[in-house]
Amino acid sequence: MHIRKDDLVVVITGDDAEAGKARRVLRVSINDGKIVVEGVNRVYKHLKPNRRNAQGGRLSKEMPIDASNALLFCPTCRKGVRIGRRYAADGHKERYCKKCGNGLGALSGPRSTYASKG
Question: Are the CB atoms for 13 and 29 separated by under 8 Å?
């Protein structure tokens, strides 16, 4: 998956899509291909009064959206962009912006010497 926890993303489809507004990813579910984004797809959960929750009422929480409905935010371009993967000069695999070529964070450790021979 191209999105990780604490990344900034721009939601491109759905009711909460706002052009150019970057929001933080709270959780990533790799098996489902879904992400939970701060302030997006909010729902109300109605709680009954009980011992733990003495007052009851409505609890607002974010629900997951599909990862394909969000683009990673590039700080150089100042908008959501498509990304690619490449090996940096030091051997780390990183994500990069396809428009400006700016690196957007490392994905893994350096390549082994065996992998770099091929």
Answer: no
Q: Give the Cα-Cα-Cα angle 7, 78, 9 (nearest 5 degrees).
A: 25
Complete domains list, the chain, with CATH: 8-47+57-117 (2.30.30)
**CA-angle at 25, arms to 19 and 29, nearest 5°:** 120
User: Digits of tens for pLDDT over the chain (118 positions)?
Assistant: 889 999 999 999 988 888 778 999 999 999 999 999 999 999 999 988 888 877 888 989 999 999 999 999 999 989 888 999 998 888 888 899 999 888 887 777 777 655 555 4
